[in-house]
UniProtKB/TrEMBL annotation:
Lineage: Bacteria, Pseudomonadati, Pseudomonadota, Alphaproteobacteria, Rhodobacterales
Annotated protein name in UniProt: DUF1203 domain-containing protein
InterPro entries hit by this protein: DUF1203 (IPR009593)
Length: 155
């Protein structure tokens, strides 16, 4: 069993207070149209008409050649962090495919782990990547836009 981890609440709170994003800019504010705006904290879709933050996120502790940065959405209002240990979050149930990649404890891509996995086979694909002992965690990204969704840690 593996654990899907949403962005930490402390980090999301700093973004909500205007902390700079992965490119040094304050998060932008926008109104959700109700489709395709997944919050990376609650891992639910931001309802139509609700305010959201749009920002560049780098889910790595420091810059380095493998530290990808990309756009994400967050609920502008406080939301509960996704904590379900057994289920699949709402934001990982609607796309046909996801890009998943394993990373080592040095936060660099472990070559040979990046694949486009069909949603129905995501659990199996994650288990196959974690067979490799040098994989510390996995990122789930959009297969179409490369947007960061969440992180999967060894349980």
């Amino acid at each position: 069993m593996h654990k899907i981890s949403a962005l930490p609440t402390e980090q999301v709170q700093t973004y909500r207070m205007g902390a700079p994003d992965g490119y040094g800019n304050p998060p932008e504010r926008a109104i959700s149209d109700g489709g395709g705006n997944p919050c990376r904290h609650c891992l639910k879709y931001i309802p139509a008409g609700k305010e959201m933050l749009v920002l560049a996120h780098r889910p790595f502790p420091e810059t380095q050649p493998y530290a990808e940065t990309g756009p994400i959405f967050l609920c502008a209002e406080p939301c509960a962090r996704y904590e379900d240990k057994d289920g699949v979050p709402e934001t990982l149930t609607d796309s046909a495919n996801y890009l998943i990649k394993g990373y080592g404890s040095d936060n660099r891509i472990v070559y040979g782990t990046g694949i486009i996995a069909p949603q129905a086979q995501l659990t199996e694909a994650v288990a196959n990547i974690f067979i490799r002992p040098n994989v510390a965690y996995i990122h789930i990204r959009s297969a179409l836009n490369n947007c960061y969704h969440s992180r999967i840690d060894r349980a």
